[in-house]
Amino acid sequence: MLPREGEEVLCLTANRFSPPALIIHAPDACVYRADFGTGTGHDSALDNALSAAGAVFPSMPEASEAETVAHFEEYGDRLPELVFTAVGAYTGIAIGQEAVEAGDLPGVLLVPA
User: What is the helix (H) or strand (E) element at residue 79, kind and residue range?
Assistant: First the structure.
């Protein structure tokens, strides 16, 4: 899934039948993967957008187990919304919640440069 020069691939999948939900990001010749609730670990603009939207949850050992569990219990239900908000901010593409819930998303979206 490597993009051609000047292209970028970003794929979000809920993986409802085989969790976890994933973000696959190929901004160049490398492919990065992140579970929903984490960043790719490459300090990219996408990672910054995920953090800014609150879509990167605390994890151990940076936070205690109690803090990690409490944060997930409070915000876990909103995680997909936070991820889509971050990706929308990163790409400049608005994805309506109604379209997501109805399953009316395109398999491929080409955005002219």
Answer: helix 79-91
